[in-house]
Amino acid sequence: MAEKYDVIIVGAGVAGLQLGALLAHDGMRTLILEKSSRVGGRAFVLEKDGYVLDYGIHLVRFGPKSAIARVIKHIGRHVDFVDVGTSYLLDEDGRRKVFPTKPITFLKTRMFSFSDMITALKTMARLRRGQFDHLLETPVKEWMDENGFKGGLRRYFHLVSASMLVCPFIDKASTGELLRNVQKVLRRRISVMYPRGGWKPLFNAWIETVNSNGRILTDSPVKEVRIKNGRATGVVIEDGREFEAEKVVVAVPVQHMFSFLDEKEFPPEFVSMCKNLRPTAGVFIDYCIKGKISDSTGLWYIWDPMCFGLFTSNLEPALAPPEGQILTFFYPRPVEEMEDPEKAKQRIDELEKAVFNLFPELQDRIAWRRAAHLTMVDGVEINIHQHRFKRPGFRAPNIPNLFLVGDSTAGDGAGGDVGHESVLECYSEMMGREV
Ligand SMILES: Cc1cc2nc3c(=O)[nH]c(=O)nc-3n(C[C@H](O)[C@H](O)[C@H](O)COP(=O)(O)OP(=O)(O)OC[C@H]3O[C@@H](n4cnc5c(N)ncnc54)[C@H](O)[C@@H]3O)c2cc1C
Question: Ligand 1 test: best mutation among 18, 31, 42, most atoms within 8 Å of CB?
């Protein structure tokens, strides 16, 4: 006899866990099935030799005003966020300059000429009020050309596209999405923050809440989501066990979901959109450092190669041993390069050279390091072909009790925030009410 649940979620990444926690907290008996031996997916936390490493840089946009904070509050938990300090750029002329993240830093930076600065402040004032859907299919490059952005101001918006949209490719990054995300920062008066205590307390809160009214099974790859008479009835996992549920949620990137769903059940254009969605990609290096080399709490941007990094342990010292630090750098690159091991290695070497150039003392202080090249960082690259109206929604077409969640859906925002926002939207689609 198959075990029965109110809802089955396929995948225990941050999206599956957050949605599972919301549903379990609301009284739905919830089962989460996870393929691998650990939960967390692309955000899993590694602990080794007293260092606690996120998977690359993992900041939370809008901190206490984020989707993550709303979920945590709804399940009766609490999280504090730590503010990211002043950010800097190693600019094209090789000089270190303040990288503006707040209005006052626009006045302080040496990135801009006087006229650049006036244009920047005027643009920001305009962005607070505007509506940008008509620019969703305009590339950032075209928008900057039309507005005559040159020099420091052009480099600034290029870097904002690279970090905020995780898309340094301005010939296709979506202006409408970029400006909407900048607007959110201006209106909420918060850019990125870091959860106090790191991501582990968040994971613990989500897991405990799911376990209070259901369970999470690891090492349980779903091999089939059963569809009968136009409804999802349950799932079968690889060892042959079957589970039934009223509702099924796919919490894996949509690009991969047809490994366990029969594509014939869906409209061909939907299948094609899901399979061809382009993710963000790139390389990151985490350095676990012996001793202290910097007390910076802001982001560090490098113009060339275009990358950015952070001393996470300066925001949350408990992540490193008392006499240690953690520095992480990320270098966004096209997915095709990451599929080519030679190219990927070359990019890791380039990134390392740039980081050593910025922090020469680092080279002799490395306790251990982790370098990775990833063909998927975020589930979707926010470009003119895949803005939020051109991605899959939260209910699968044709199958009314099959739902989608995660960072490759139509969730509002950019980067990981697409996934966090999708949790709220999927919940409201399933439950008919807001979090
Ligand atoms: C280097 C890096 C840096 C990042 N920086 C940030 C950041 O600063 N801020 C931020 O918010 N986000 C960031 N992100 C993005 C964030 O990590 C992702 O958006 C998020 O982890 C995606 O979660 P998810 O649950 O949607 O998908 P995933 O993490 O991919 O989870 C899907 C889960 O499903 C499981 N699965 C797959 N197939 C099956 C199957 N057949 N059966 C059962 N289980 C299955 C997988 O094993 C996985 O655990 C970053 C990501 C990376 C890689």
Answer: 42
